[in-house]
Amino acid sequence: QVQLVESGGGLVQAGGSLRLSCVVSGRIDTFTRSWYRQAPGKQRELVARIASGGSTNYADSVKGRFTISRDNAKNTVYLQMNSLKPEDTAIYYCYIPNGVTGYWGQGTQVTVSS
Q1: Tens digit of pLDDT for each residue in 65-84?
Q2: Angstrom distance (rounded) from CA 41 to CA 72
Q3: How far is 33 from 40, CA to CA, in rounded Å?
């Protein structure tokens, strides 16, 4: 059984930083890892993705501020978030594509105050 557990969210002032972690347990053959977020009243959106070879892509709104990385030995993917803005406030989810629905974590709340 595959499980994804996120941590690291919290309340931070605008301009601050947070680092999210997602620990993956269970057998999974897919190496792509992604972070999504969902703000109140909005659709879930892709924030960042890292592929098996290490290539990354980001939403335009976070480019230059967020960095996705992974530690394969720890089965963990990270999202370093700098220069946070109030509009970054959302629940952040870790995601692994697999089949039709893929695997989702339970989410971690990030709140950025102005």
Answers
A1: 999 999 999 999 999 999 99
A2: 34
A3: 24
